[in-house]
Amino acid sequence: MGDAPVLLLIAHRPAAAPAAGHAVPQLLATVEHTALTLRPLSDAGSETLLRDALGAETPSGFCAAASRAAGGNPLLLRELARAITARRLAPTADAVDALLEGGAAGVARTVRTRLAELNPAATALAEAAAIVGDGQPLRVAADVAGLRGEVARDAAAALRDVEVLAPGDTVAFTHPLVRAALRGDLRALVPGDAHARAAELLARAGAPDRAVAEALLGAPPAGDPARVATLRRAAAAALAAHAPGAARRWTRRALAEPPPEADRAAVLLELADAESSLDQTAAEAALDQALALLRDPVARATALGRAAAFRPSGEPDEAIALGLQRVRELGDASPPLRRRLLGVVGTAVAVRGPATGPAELVAALRDLGDADDPGARMLRCVAAYRDAWTNASATRVLASGERAFGGDWLTALDVEGGPFAIGFIALLAADAPGAARLAEEWVAHGRRRNHVAHIAGALMLRARVRLQAGALAAAVEDAEASLDAFEAYGVRGAAPAFAFAASTLAAARLELGDVEAAARALAHVDPADEAGTPGLIGMTPVRAAMRAASGEAAGALHDTLALGARFEALGGRCPALLPWRSQAALAAHGLGDDGARPRGLAEAEVAAARAWGTPRAIGRALTALGVVTPGAAGVATLREAVEVLDGAPAPLEHARAQLALGGALHDAGDAAGAREPLRRALEIADQCGAAPLAGQARTALVATGARPRRAALTGPGALTAAERRVAEAAASGASNREIAEELYLTPSTVRIHLSRSLRKLGVSSRSELADALRNGRAP
User: Fold this and answer.
1) pLDDT tens for each residue of 387-410
2) Contacts of 429 (CB under 8 A, 6+ apart)
3) pTM metric for this prediction
């Protein structure tokens, strides 16, 4: 047995290595062995662990914050993941703050188990250190615990041995979660009012406001104005550093102190600032309380404008009434503030029906001049949506959008995001070339600021950008993340923004051929709850398309005509926002109506699309007209549609035009001529992953006598658009993290796409990608 291949593995905590008299060192001294010191997980390793636990699309921002909090410790990371799941928190960087505030149960158990082996002095010092916080003098923690001299030094040494504290003369917990676990389960072992005493000692020692504020969280209220001032300063600094969770904690504690009555309204407004990044309902409540106390007209107008800004999506009539009331009370006292208020009013009016509006709004839109403050940018967004709705022209919308979204537009976005959302929808209708870049900037800005509402809205709009670009899988990813973020923020159900995100998800799923998943996306919003123009142009037409995809052609036609009637009643004219006439024409034609009605509908949309002026709208309308027009005239119209859409940022519309042209040519007896447009339709649909469209093109090709390739399982043709983008970036030498940043994907998604690409291309390494992509085969 002496030479038996046996491996004995012994593990222990590094700071608690076995003493010399123990059995482990004696055993190790007699055998050949290797000591391995495990390093903390890297950020990438932490991200992999968290995504295994929480799902592949867990945001990178959360993973990075969790990795920092846990210091790469797998135990602590798993406890964070368990706590996120148990408390049903959205995985955001701010959720890590919440968990650090309350501690994670598993970590708390581990820490308590270690402390149970120590004497009460060590436990008291650990709890006092948790109150005092990292970076503060250890002597302050000892004073709070009532420990002196040798007793304090021994207690600190014991805490270092069990890896609660790190070496040094300042409080330094081995991981933030260890401190959080202690703070979440403090026992009354420290003498007297420990939190209040800690705050007093820290203030006397010149500690930062945040350390004093954190200690005050556990102190009983005392009505002390100095405490309130400290808490407010700490909260303001946290908000400036984009840590709204900490700002909310400290501002709530300032209100509980309570502040002097003269300061209460100001503190409530500061709480609304912190809550507005995290919880719409709580922010509205704080604003309502502040409004009951404010008397100054400008201050009331500012607060009421902010209160009204929360309401356009769900309560547009109330937003209009509140905003106009303050506009009229304010008069000419502050033109920039007046423009901001009217920007909120304009957003609410746009949700109700952009073609109308109160006189004050109409005058402000007409008299903007060269104003470039946030309110002016908000009003330009309102003007862009209004012009899109009434079909004024894409050129005019793009001009307004350039002024609204140019330069430092993100600063204006921070004032109020609603107007920029409707302005962005107008830019999408105008096929603005910079829309994708603006969406990326918006997403990145929201993540930098840990602003849940900005993140939700930005992902909603980026999903729509990707849907229009034919990047269907990426659109699904963004739309689902947007819905999750909206729900975390308290926006759901009837809110037009939520409905718009759900409609994008359903539309992308439908294009991918997953009717059941599309139906689940539609189920997010009850039809009886749909409200507002974003829902009208988003959710409602997708419901009609769903009926058509489910074989309910007559019902789809009925719904589309009713939708068009609602659109027109609200002054809607733009086929880029809602191409209801072409949809109705195709539905009627599919039901066997070869009369004048389908052609009349299609011709009216062609005229409106030409007035609007974008290739997407014109090509889509021409495709419908070509389908419902018999003979050579129909073929000529379809050829024009294909030409208009060739090179336009509208791949799915282009594929449909090619499919319709191929079908018309085949019906006219030109099978050979039909094959090229049908092949092109198949190629585009396959690249986008649009399975139903690809299936129609393949069937039509077979009918011409062609033998189209089967859906590629291997080679470059098998790659989805997203897989090709990742593979091409990897082939150029970019790392996974660089690809993720460039394409705004998560590193996990990059790994998945790259793995699939390598498998489909039949290669095993990144170095072989370039040849495989170029040659269409493995090298």
Assistant:
1) 999 999 999 999 999 999 999 999
2) 388, 394, 397, 574, 576, 577, 614
3) 0.70
